[in-house]
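Propose amino acids for all 424 sites.
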C-alpha cells in the first residue's frame, strides 16, 4: 500500500524493548455513561480522571445540545444540568459516537421524552438495541421507530419493572439503570451485565441520591427516587488500556509499571499473560508490574465472554501478541460477529492467522516485518500499534481517528517508555 500524503499516520520503527512507568487513563466505557448520568441530576456534577478522547468530546457536545453546561479543565469535566432545554439529539451527533444510545435512558428519566436517531450498525457488525427497547417498553415508555428515529415518551411516567435480559448487554443494563433511577417504584434486572463500568455508574448515581444495589452482580435492584442532585466522582481506570499496555510490554519482551491501574478489573487477563511466561506483580497503590521473558509461549486458547470473562475488547491486542509467541493460539470470539478485521492487517506484517466465522487460529512466528496498515476500528487499531512495536523496520498506520476515540496519547505513552513511534 502506498503512503498517502497528508493523511494522519502513526509511524513505528519496531524492535525497541519497552521499559518504564505509565499512568493509566480513566475508562472510556465509564466516562460515557457517567456523562449521560449527569443529565438526570438537577445540579452540578464534577467528574475527575476524565481521559482526553474524541468520544468524550462527542458526549460533551451531546450534553451541550441538550442544554447542559459542560466545561473541561484538565482531567475534570463539570456538567451543570439544572436546566434541560432539549430532548432531541441530532443525527450528526448520534453518528459521531456509536455508544450515544446510552443517553436514551438518562434523557427519558429526566424528561419522560426523547428523540434519537437510530444508532445503526458499526464496524463490529450489526449493533442491535432490541434489549434496550424491550426493557424501556416494559417500564411504560412508548417507543416508535420511524424514518431512522426512535421517538420515545412516557406521559404517565416511567414505572419500575422486572426485566430479564436474554444476554447481559452492557449498554442495555446502563440504559435501564439510568431510566429506573428516578422511575416510580422498584426495577429489578435479571442477568444484568457485571462489568466494572456498571459498578462505576451505580456508584456515581448513588452519590447523587439514587438507590441502586447489586451492581457488579447479575441481579441489580433500583429503587426509584424523586430526583437526583449532582455529585463529584472519580472515573475508574481503563481496564482495556491497561490490557493494551500489558500487551505492548509483553510483545517487546519488556517491563513496565502501570500506575493508577485496577488489577481486580483484569482478573481474566493476568493469568493468560502469566501462562505465556510474563511475571506480573500487583503492589502498592494500584500498581501493576509486568516483566516478559525472552521467549513467550502461546496460551493455546482465548475465549472472550462477558465480564468477569476475557474481554472482547482485549482480543485484538492479544491476537497481535499471539502472532509472536511460540506455538498456536486459538481465539473464540463469543460477543461480536465481525471482530477479526485486524487479522488481515496483522497478516500484512507476516502474522499467520486464519479465521473461520468466530474462530481465529494464530500460529506464532519469529519475525514480523513493517508494512503500511489501516486501522478500521478502535481496538483493532490498538492491535496494529502493538504489533508494530515488534515488527522489524517501519510500520505506518492510518485510520488513527479510530484509535483517538479510546486512547489518550498512546503515541506519547509508548514513546516515553522507549518505543520509536511518532504521529505525523
Ligand atoms: C459495550 C462496550 C464495548 C464492549 C461491549 C462488550 C461501551 C461504550 N462499549 O458495548 O466496548 O465491546 O460492551 O463488552 O461500554 N446485543 C443485542 N441486543 C441488544 C444489545 C446488545 O443483541 O439490545 C448484543 C450485541 O450485538 C453484542 C452483545 O449483545 O453481540 C454485547 O453487546 P453489549 O454488551 O450491549 O455491548 P455495548 O454496550 O454495545
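Proposal:
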Amino acid at each position: 500500500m502506498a503512503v498517502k500524503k497528508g493523511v494522519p499516520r502513526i509511524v513505528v520503527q519496531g524492535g525497541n524493548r519497552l521499559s518504564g512507568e505509565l499512568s493509566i487513563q480513566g475508562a472510556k466505557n465509564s466516562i460515557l455513561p457517567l456523562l449521560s448520568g449527569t443529565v438526570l441530576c438537577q445540579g452540578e456534577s464534577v467528574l475527575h480522571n476524565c481521559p482526553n478522547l474524541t468520544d468524550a468530546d462527542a458526549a460533551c457536545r451531546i450534553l451541550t445540545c441538550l442544554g447542559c453546561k459542560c466545561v473541561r479543565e484538565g482531567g475534570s469535566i463539570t456538567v451543570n444540568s439544572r436546566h434541560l432545554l432539549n430532548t432531541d439529539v441530532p443525527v450528526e451527533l448520534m453518528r459521531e459516537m456509536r455508544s450515544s444510545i446510552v443517553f436514551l435512558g438518562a434523557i427519558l428519566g429526566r424528561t419522560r421524552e426523547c428523540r434519537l436517531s437510530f444508532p445503526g450498525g458499526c464496524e463490529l457488525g450489526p449493533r442491535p438495541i432490541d434489549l434496550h427497547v424491550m426493557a424501556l417498553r416494559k417500564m411504560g415508555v412508548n417507543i416508535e421507530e420511524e424514518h431512522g428515529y426512535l421517538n420515545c415518551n412516557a406521559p404517565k411516567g416511567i414505572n419500575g419493572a422486572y426485566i430479564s435480559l436474554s444476554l447481559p448487554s452492557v449498554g442495555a443494563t446502563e440504559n435501564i439503570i439510568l431510566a429506573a433511577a428516578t422511575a416510580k417504584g422498584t426495577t429489578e434486572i435479571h442477568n444484568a451485565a457485571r462489568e466494572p463500568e456498571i459498578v462505576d455508574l451505580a456508584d456515581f448515581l448513588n452519590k447523587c441520591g439514587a438507590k441502586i444495589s447489586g451492581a457488579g452482580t447479575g441481579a441489580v435492584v433500583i429503587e426509584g427516587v424523586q430526583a437526583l442532585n449532582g455529585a463529584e466522582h472519580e472515573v475508574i481506570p481503563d481496564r482495556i488500556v491497561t490490557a493494551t499496555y500489558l500487551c505492548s510490554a509483553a510483545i517487546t519482551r519488556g517491563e513496565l509499571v502501570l500506575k493508577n491501574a485496577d488489577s481486580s478489573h483484569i482478573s481474566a487477563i493476568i493469568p493468560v499473560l502469566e501462562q505465556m511466561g510474563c511475571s506480573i506483580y500487583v503492589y502498592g497503590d494500584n500498581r501493576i508490574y509486568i516483566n516478559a521473558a525472552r521467549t513467550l509461549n502461546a496460551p493455546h486458547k482465548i475465549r472472550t465472554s462477558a465480564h468477569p470473562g476475557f474481554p472482547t475488547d482485549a482480543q485484538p491486542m492479544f491476537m497481535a501478541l499471539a502472532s509472536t509467541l511460540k506455538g498456536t493460539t486459538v481465539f473464540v470470539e463469543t460477543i461480536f460477529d465481525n471482530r477479526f478485521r485486524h487479522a488481515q492487517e496483522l497478516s500484512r506484517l507476516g502474522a499467520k492467522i486464519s479465521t473461520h466465522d468466530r474462530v481465529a487460529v494464530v500460529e506464532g512466528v519469529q519475525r514480523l516485518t513493517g508494512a503500511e496498515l489501516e486501522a478500521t476500528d478502535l481496538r483493532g487499531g490498538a492491535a496494529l500499534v502493538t504489533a508494530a512495536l515488534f515488527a522489524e523496520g517501519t510500520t505506518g498506520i492510518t485510520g488513527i481517528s479510530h484509535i483517538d476515540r479510546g486512547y489518550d496519547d498512546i503515541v506519547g505513552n509508548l514513546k516515553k517508555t522507549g518505543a520509536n513511534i511518532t504521529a505525523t
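The first strand starts at residue 10 and ends at 13. The mean pLDDT is 94.
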